[in-house]
Design goal:
Blueprint: H1 2-16, E1 20-21, E2 28-29, H2 33-40, H3 44-84, H4 95-108, H5 118-146, H6 163-180, H7 191-220, H8 238-274, H9 279-282, E3 285-287, E4 290-292, H10 294-312, H11 317-344, H12 352-383
Antiparallel strand pairs: 1-2, 3-4
Helix pairs in contact: 1-7, 1-11, 2-3, 3-4, 3-8, 3-10, 3-11, 4-10, 5-7, 5-8, 6-11, 6-12, 11-12
Length: 391
C-alpha cells in the first residue's frame, strides 16, 4: 500500500505539471484528462485514453452498485443476527437492494451537474471518515478482546489452499489496491495547489487503508472476511455496524452520480452535435432541481438499468474491483502521466530521468498484467458457485 501510495502521488505530480500545455504557468489550461492527452500527445493515444477512461468509469459505477447493495443488505442481516442469534443463516436475496439502489440512482441522474454541488464533497468526506473510523475502531476492539494479534506473516498456509489459489489471491489483492489508487481526472486548479491536495489526500487515504487493513487482519487473521463491515467479522454492536454500512450507502449514492456525469455528458454532447434541431435531444422541462428532457430521461434511465442488470449477473465484489483496478491502473495512473510529462518537459531520450520513468512504466505494466490475471482467475472461481440473478 505504501508503494502504491508513492506511485500514485508521484504520477499525480507529473499529471499536475501537464495542467498547462507549454508554459507551466501561463500555457493553455487542460480542463480534463482526455483534453490533456489530446493537446500534448494527440493521435491514436487520445482515443485509447478515452476508451480506457470511460470503460473505467462504467466499471466504477458497477463496482459502486455492488458495494452499496451489499452494505444495504448487510444492515438487514445485522438486525437479523441481533434478533435471532449469530448462528442463524439470516439468508435473504440482495436483488431487491440492487433494484432499490438503482431506483435511487435513476432519480438522482436527472439532476443536471450533480457532481458540481458543493455540499456533496463534504457529505462524501464525512461518510468516508465515518465508516472507515468505525471499521478501524471495531478492529482495534476485537483485537483487544482476542488478547493479541491474529494471523501470520505469510497469510493462509498452503495446506489450506493450493499454491495456484494463493497466487491468484495475491494478484487479485494487487488489483484491489490499484483500484483504490486509480487516478481521476484533474480538477481545474493550478499545479502547485493540485500537488498539495494530492499529497494530503494520498497520505490520508494510505494511512486509513494501512490501519484498517492491518487491524482487520490483526483481529481475524486468516479468517478475515472480504469486507469487514459486510462480511460479519463484527456482529455487535449491531447498530454501529448499521451506521457504518448506512454511511457507505449514502457515500456511494453520491459517488455514483459523480462518476456517471462524464459518461452522461459525453453521450449528450454527441447527440446535441448530431441532431441540433431535434426536440427529443434539446428541449428541456425544469421541475425543481431536475432538468428533464426526453433524451436525458431515456438515456440516463437506460444506463442505470443496464448497469443494475450487469450487477445482478456478477459475483465476487473483490474480484470485480480487482479487475477494474488492474485494467485501468497502468494506462490512467502511470502511462499517460509519464508520457505527457516527458513530452511536455522534453525529457532527453536515453538519459537517466528517461530511463527511470520508463522503468516505472514497465514495472507498473507488469503489476497490472499480473493483477488482471489474478482477478480473472478469482472471477472464474466465483462463477463456479454463483447463480446469476439469484441474489
Amino acid at each position: 500500500m505504501a508503494l502504491f501510495g508513492g506511485v500514485i502521488y508521484y504520477s499525480s505530480t507529473l499529471l499536475a505539471d501537464c495542467y498547462h500545455t507549454g508554459d507551466p504557468a501561463a500555457g493553455s489550461r487542460n480542463h480534463s484528462y482526455v483534453e490533456a492527452v489530446r493537446t500534448i500527445l494527440g493521435g491514436a493515444k487520445v482515443k485509447f485514453c478515452g476508451v480506457i477512461q470511460y470503460a473505467n468509469l462504467v466499471g466504477i459505477t458497477i463496482g459502486y452498485t455492488i458495494a452499496a447493495s451489499i452494505s444495504f443488505h448487510a444492515i438487514t442481516r445485522a438486525n437479523c443476527f441481533h434478533n435471532k442469534g449469530h448462528h442463524d443463516a439470516c439468508h435473504s436475496s440482495s436483488t431487491p437492494y440492487m433494484i432499490g439502489f438503482g431506483a435511487a440512482r435513476m432519480v438522482f441522474s436527472q439532476i443536471p451537474n450533480f457532481d458540481q454541488i458543493r455540499w456533496l464533497s463534504v457529505v462524501a468526506s464525512v461518510m468516508s471518515f465515518t465508516y472507515s473510523g468505525i471499521g478501524l475502531g471495531l478492529g482495534i476492539a476485537q483485537t483487544d478482546d482476542n488478547g493479541g494479534f491474529r494471523g501470520t506473516l505469510t497469510g493462509i498456509a498452503i495446506a489450506g489452499v493450493t499454491v495456484m489459489q494463493k497466487l491468484w489471491r495475491i494478484l487479485q489483492a494487487l488489483g484491489n489496491i490499484t483500484f483504490a489508487y486509480t487516478i481521476k481526472s484533474p480538477p481545474p486548479s493550478e499545479a502547485a495547489v493540485m500537488k498539495k491536495a494530492t499529497a494530503l489526500s494520498v497520505a490520508t487515504t494510505t494511512a486509513f487503508y494501512v490501519m484498517c487493513g492491518c487491524m482487520g487482519y490483526a483481529a481475524f487473521g486468516n479468517d478475515a472476511p472480504d469486507n469487514l463491515l459486510t462480511g460479519f467479522g463484527f456482529y455487535e454492536p449491531f447498530w454501529l455496524v448499521d451506521v457504518a454500512n448506512g454511511a457507505i450507502v449514502v457515500h456511494l449514492v453520491g459517488a455514483y452520480q459523480v462518476f456517471c456525469q462524464p459518461i452522461f455528458a459525453f453521450v449528450e454532447r454527441w447527440a446535441a452535435a448530431r441532431w441540433p434541431e431535434s426536440g427529443f435531444v434539446t428541449r428541456e422541462l425544469g421541475v425543481g432541481p431536475f432538468a428533464l428532457s426526453a433524451l436525458r430521461l431515456v438515456w440516463r434511465s437506460g444506463f442505470v438499468c443496464l448497469t443494475t442488470l450487469v450487477v445482478m449477473a456478477m459475483p465476487s465484489f473483490g474480484a470485480i474491483v480487482g479487475l477494474m483496478g488492474a485494467l485501468s491502473f497502468w494506462p490512467l495512473t502511470v502511462y499517460f502521466p509519464v508520457e505527457m510529462y516527458m513530452k511536455q518537459r522534453a525529457v532527453a531520450r536515453g538519459g537517466a530521468r528517461w530511463l527511470c520513468l520508463k522503468a516505472l512504466t514497465g514495472t507498473c505494466l507488469v503489476v497490472s498484467v499480473a493483477a488482471t490475471v489474478g482477478s480473472i482467475a478469482g472471477m472464474v472461481g466465483a462463477f463456479k458457485v454463483f447463480r446469476p440473478f439469484g441474489g
